[in-house]
Specification:
Blueprint: E1 2-6, E2 13-14, E3 18-19, E4 40-41, E5 47-51, E6 54-62, E7 69-78, H1 87-92, E8 99-107, E9 109-115, H2 124-140, H3 143-162
Parallel strand pairs: 1-8, 2-8, 3-9
Antiparallel strand pairs: 4-5, 5-6, 6-9, 7-8
């Protein structure tokens, strides 16, 4: 389990995550990223770049209003355990270490890259982001809003059938 804490050293940097149709066996910073990654936009607003000799087309997916993405760095630090009047109940449950993840960046859009053309709405990453947002809204909806969420789901199903 993770507990997210804002970075204490500075304000999180602004970034844009890029989802690539490739597997890269590297996890960490690159000293000269512009040597390998130079996307540009055409007149229609579609992003284009070459990566390892292949032309990629990017579709920018903005996060909904009032949503913020977070870039996290998981640390080895753990949250202190609280002891209180429920100590007996807690002992019966298996204790789980809660690691601290520090927020090092934030984003308000994601770029999904694909081969051979613009990424469509039926792309697994695009669908995953849209489904996660609907799931999150349903989980955090108040009782009055739940009927609106259900109605929105039904509308979404009807729109999918029309396609």
């Amino acid at each position: 389990m993770l507990a997210i804490q804002p970075s204490s050293s500075s304000k999180p940097s602004k970034s844009t995550p890029n989802l690539l149709p490739a597997r890269i066996h590297h996890d960490g910073p690159l000293p000269n990223v512009h040597k390998y990654w130079t996307p540009s936009k055409d007149e229609s607003g579609t992003s284009h770049t070459y990566f390892r000799g292949r032309r990629l087309h990017g579709t920018t997916l903005p996060l909904p209003e009032h949503y913020t993405g977070a870039v996290l760095q998981v640390t080895e630090e753990t949250m202190p355990r609280k002891r209180g009047h429920l100590e007996e109940e807690e002992d019966e449950e298996e204790e789980v270490d809660v690691k601290i993840a520090k927020q090092v960046g934030s984003f308000d859009e994601v770029v999904v890259w694909g081969h051979g053309g613009v990424v469509e709405k039926d792309d697994a990453y695009v669908r995953g982001i849209e489904e996660w947002i609907r799931f999150s809204e349903a989980m955090h909806a108040e009782e009055d809003d739940e009927s609106e969420v259900v109605e929105g789901k039904e509308r979404g199903k009807e729109e999918a059938k029309e396609k």
